[in-house]
Design goal:
By secondary structure, the chain is an alpha/beta fold. It is about 35% helix and about 15% strand. A five-stranded parallel β-sheet has the order 2-1-6-5-7, sandwiched between helices. A two-stranded antiparallel sheet has the order 3-4. A two-stranded antiparallel sheet has the order 8-9. The relative contact order is 0.15. The protein binds S-adenosylmethionine. The site of S-adenosylmethionine has 19 residues, from β5.
């Protein structure tokens, strides 16, 4: 899978994209990161990528031209996703959907956002990572890239398989424990140390159900509607 990321701050992303699961996936050839800086597609000697908003008001707006030319320069752009608080909420379903695309291009805004004509002319969908406002799309790009890449075949080892994580089967996951058996006078649930695999599976299913009912009943309603 190829991830193009259009950003005025490629340095913000380089290191996280080469660490842990994302880095391993890139070294294994499962994913390829291509960072593109709209500033390299400006046409004035000051490399101006932003300008004042039409209609006045505070803040600057990312100019359409440099972003548009940055995307046009890509050999393959695939599905173009703009990261914006105005987008549809990003969730597990969206991560699965994007993981099936061979190429995804993420647009990171800054300032008041990207000139809307970029969205009108070349964006396939707008995604938000939550109801709050970040200073830039880069953290959102990392969230989307991480959630998508961990779903790609071979990206995760057995020890951190996505299939036992929250949302994969619709609900929240059961809690997890590791050694020591006793910590701060708190014991691990006995069934987990019993060696009875079917009993462990039943306990996990029960705990998963309990957590979903208590914390996210909205997920049960969603599953019921499917
Ligand atoms: N004026 C925009 C608004 O109110 O909708 C906010 C712009 S924000 C300061 C700058 C950039 O950060 C956005 O263009 C977007 O790329 C990114 N961003 C901020 N919050 C985000 C969120 N919740 N999800 C995805 N991207 C976000």
């Amino acid at each position: 899978m190829i991830f193009n990321i259009v950003t005025l701050f490629p340095g913000f992303l380089r290191e996280p994209l080469e660490m842990s699961v994302l880095g391993r996936a890139s070294r294994a050839g499962t994913v390829e990161w291509r960072l593109v800086d709209p500033r390299d597609f400006t046409q004035d000697r000051h490399r101006t990528a932003d300008d004042e908003p039409f209609g006045g008001g505070s803040g600057m707006v990312m100019k359409a031209g440099p972003v548009w030319r940055a995307v046009e320069s890509l050999p393959e752009r695939g599905r173009v996703v703009s990261l914006t608080p105005r987008g549809r909420p990003f969730d597990h379903e969206a991560a699965v959907r994007l993981s099936l695309e061979p190429v995804v291009t993420l647009l990171c805004g800054r300032y008041k956002g990207i000139d809307e004509r970029v969205t009108e002319s070349m964006v396939n969908e707008e995604l938000s990572i939550g109801d709050y406002v970040l200073s830039g799309g880069e953290p959102a790009a990392l969230v989307v890239a991480d959630a998508v890449v961990r779903l790609l075949p071979g990206a995760l080892g057995d020890h951190d398989s996505a299939a036992t994580d929250s949302f994969y089967d619709g609900g929240l996951s059961a809690p997890a424990y590791t050694r020591p058996r006793e910590f701060q006078s708190l014991e691990v649930p006995e069934v987990l140390t019993s060696g009875h695999h079917s009993a462990v599976a039943r306990w996990r299913a029960r705990e998963s159900d309990r957590a979903t009912r208590n914390r996210r009943p909205d997920l049960l309603d969603l599953n019921a509607a499917d």
